[in-house]
Specification:
With 196 residues, this protein is an alpha+beta fold. It has helices spanning 5-19, 23-66, 87-108, 135-138, 158-162, 188-195, and strands at 71-81, 113-115, 142-144, 175-184. Strands 1, 2, 3 and 4 form a 4-stranded antiparallel beta sheet that branches. The chain starts with a helix and ends with a helix.
Length: 196
């Protein structure tokens, strides 16, 4: 078989590129250095962002510690219809609902916070993440009647059976009633209208 000059040139060119020392290792080390620089830059940016976030949180904490609200001790009675099948998950619905309520109130009024229902019982809660899932600690901020039995599945009411909303032997999800207290600067009625 005859090979053309063109084929020989390509083979020699390919052989030369393989035989040249350091050609590929140099490219690999440059790539490695570039990745190291990118990682270092990324880490520096993340550190700067964390420092800025910490500084902002410290400023918020300082501002909130000295803040005097225009509307104090707004006591609200609420209810929550549970939706989870498992009993333990129903217990967690109350703290989750209180967290969501606080987040939504702060969208309307940045200064809104939860206060213990009984004065002086605990510090104010400014962040939704501070609302704990432990019902003992949550009890300072949320008074809920019926204890843990309030989360148990209930027999349907007579009117629910008569209207055909449920079957005779079917249990219905409980409705949990609770009371909480919040502080704010804007009109509390307007805040509650917007978050309801």
């Amino acid at each position: 078989m005859k090979s053309s000059k063109k084929d020989k040139g390509e083979k020699e060119k390919g052989r030369d590129s393989i035989l040249k020392p350091g050609r590929f290792s140099q490219g690999a080390s440059e790539e490695k250095r570039r990745k190291e620089v990118e990682e270092k830059t990324r880490a520096e940016k993340a550190a700067e962002a964390a420092m800025a976030k910490a500084k902002e949180a410290e400023e918020k904490k300082e501002m909130r510690g000295n803040h005097m609200h225009n509307h104090k001790r707004n006591v609200v009675e609420c209810s929550l219809v549970c939706s989870q099948e498992e009993e333990q998950q129903r217990y967690n619905e109350l703290p989750a609902a209180v967290r969501l309520l606080l987040k939504n109130m702060q969208k309307v009024d940045f200064s809104a916070c939860l206060e213990p229902v009984e004065e002086g019982d605990a510090p104010k809660l400014w962040e939704a993440a501070d609302v704990l899932y432990d019902h003992t600690e949550l009890g300072s901020y949320v008074q809920q009647g019926g204890g843990m039995q309030a989360f148990a599945m209930k027999k349907p009411k007579k009117w629910q059976k008569e209207q055909g909303l449920v079957e005779e032997d079917e249990l219905v999800m409980p409705e949990v009633y609770f009371t909480l207290c919040f502080l704010c600067d804007k009109d509390p009625e307007k805040i509650l209208e917007r978050v309801s």
